[in-house]
Amino acid sequence: MKRHLVLWDIDGTLIDDGGLCQVIYPRAFERLTGRPARHPVAIAGRTELDIMAELFARHGVSPVAQSLVTAELNAQLRRLDDEFRTAGRVLPGAVEALRAMGEQREVAQSVLTGNLRANALLKLLLFGLAEFMDLGVGGYGDDGHERAALVPVARRRAAAAYGHDFDADSTVLIGDTPRDVRAARIGGARVIAVASGASSAAMLTDAGADAVLADLRDTAAVLRTVQALRPAAWSTG
Known about the structure:
44% helix
């Protein structure tokens, strides 16, 4: 039986997008409003809908229907398919960590990401990571504007899929930003922060992460760290 739920952030934790995500949102804004985006907004650790909502607000534009926003964001990412393949990369150790975690018979693993579901799936497929996760039980950027709200969504989906309630102690979020840490704390999960993105280990520790890893290169260390957060009833194989 699956008794532990591991939820992975995507950008900055599993993949490096080569800076292309910085391009998507201003382009989508211009397509949706007919105006150039003159005011940049921070994107790390946020949902795509939250990013777009701030862009609209900062430019004094009335919010655009969510269906139009999601369609345009997906279209923008698809236009960058080839560039993602060349500019982006899987971060060191990510494949090995996902494979090893997937071999733990009591662990269900999925994603907790600010990406819209369609965009998350596209990125994971582009970089060959989708096969390691149960993407039906994840939390995605179209499930809510606030990242913390995605954690209970993923827990409910996992409970429905596996017939077991995943509480805050049996759910582990792995991400690379202070917003990931806060999402876990507020949403109900333990959290491992990986200093593979723009946030330093010190920043992630100060944000309140249960544990901080420099990166995912040491597969055994990743497994040990997850296990240490929930040692009871953990078996491998």
